Amino acid sequence: MPYSLALATVDVGQKSYQHKLQQTEVYHIFQGHGRMRIENEKNEVVAGDVIVIPAEALQWIENIGNEALIFAAIVSPPWTEDGDVRLK
């Protein structure tokens, strides 16, 4: 398959790790209210939103709502550990 698919959950008040992927990534928000950060931009996201994250862009998402933030993460070409650079 030309992509990988993961279901992710971010608990209330938490955020994902800051990272860059070598691949393009798409988030499809299923539940919750979050703030998506891509490079120097930040936008609020809610259920139904779809976010395209360009390859090599610094990114993370935080849950700013009162329920779990649940989304699908689609990566093409497929996600690899070597292609996922986590920042501290």
Q: How are the strands ordered across the major sheet?
A: 1-8-3-6
Radius of gyration: 12 Å
Distance between the termini: 31 Å
Overall number of strands: 9
Name the shape in a single word.
Answer: globular
Architecture in CATH?
Sandwich
Structural features, described:
The protein is an all-beta fold. It has a single domain, classed as Sandwich (Jelly Rolls). Helix content is 0%, strand content 57%. It has a four-stranded antiparallel β-sheet, with no helix packed on it. Strand 4 and strand 5 form a beta hairpin. The radius of gyration is 12 Å and the shape is globular.
Defining key terms:
about 90 residues; globular; about 0% helix; Jelly Rolls; mainly beta; four-stranded antiparallel sheet; three-stranded antiparallel sheet
Q: Could you provide a short overview of the structure?
A:
Helix content is 0%, strand content 57%. The protein contains no helices and nine strands.
Summarize the SSE layout with pairings.
Blueprint (H helix, E strand, L loop, with lengths): L3 E7 L8 E3 L2 E8 L1 E6 L2 E6 L3 E4 L5 E5 L5 E8 L7 E3 L2
